[in-house]
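Have a think about this chain, C-alpha cells included, and walk me through the fold.
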Amino acid sequence: MDNSRFALDEALAEEIRTRVFSDGFMKIVQSVRRGGGTFRISMRPVLIAHEKKYQAEMTEDGQVQVKNFDRAGAAKGLEEIIAQKGAREMHLICADGDLHVRVTKKGRALVSRSAAMDRKVELRSHDRVKKLPLTSFDSAALLRVTGIAAANGEIRASMRGKYDQVNEFLKAVEAILQNFKPSDGERPFTVVDCGCGKAYLTLALYFWLVRTAGFANVKVIGIDRREDVIAAATDMARRLDVADSVEFVQSDLAAYKLDKADLVVSLHACDTATDEALAKAVEWKARYILSAPCCQHELQKSLAEIG
C-alpha cells in the first residue's frame, strides 16, 4: 500500500510545528483508526518541578501510557504525530485559535481553522495549596491509569471511596513532612511501602512528593508477596513513565534488604506484617513511620470488652 498519499503538506506540517512550540500552545490531539480500533495520542505543556515539560498521553485498547519530555523529546514526538499514516483526525488548540485536520481514507487532508481567539495560557505551579492533595497537581493520568477515573477523567462511582482514601493518606503524609526540607543531595528521599497491594497509594505518594511537595530526588519501593499485584503495579509505573523512580518488588518483607529508608509506610498489613514493617523501619533507620495496623478494630473491640 502506498502510504505517501497520507503525508501532510509541508506547509501545513510546518504550521503545526511552529504553533506547538509557541507560547500560546495548549494541546494537540490526534486519533488514528487502525486495526479496527483507535489509537489516540495527545500532548500538552505542563509544569513539573518548576520546569516546563511536554506531557504525551497515548491510549489504545483501553490502556493509557504517559510520558514527559523536554523540548527536544517533544519535537521528536511531534514529528511522529505528523508522520502518522492512514485516516486520522488532528486537533491543535492554541491561545490564538484552533486548527483541525481530518485525513480521509483516500488520503485527502481537510483543513479548517477557527476564528481568531485570545485565550490565556496558564501553566499552574504545583506548589499552590488546594483542598485535596490529588488536586494540588495534575493527577489526571495517574487516576486514569490506576482505574480510579474513567477515560473521560470522571472519578468512577465504584472508586469514589478509594479516591477519598488516597486524599486522606496524602494529607497524613503532608502533616508528618510539613517541617522537612527536601535536599538536592545525591541520595534520594527513599520511601518503602510495606504491603503495597494494588499500589494506588504508592504511586499517588510518588507524584505528590515530586509535583506538590517539591522533592527533586525520590525513590519509592513497593513490596508485596503477591506476584500478580506486583506485575500489575510495575505495569502501571511503566505506563506512567516513572518505572525508574518507582520500583515494585515481590518479596517477604523480612527478607528484603535495604541500607536506608526515610519514610516507611505500612497500612493495614495483615497478620504480623505490621510488626515486621516496624522492625524493618528501625533497621533502616527511617526518619518517619506511617502505620495503621490491620486489626485495630479487633483491638478496639477487645479493649471495650475488658472495660
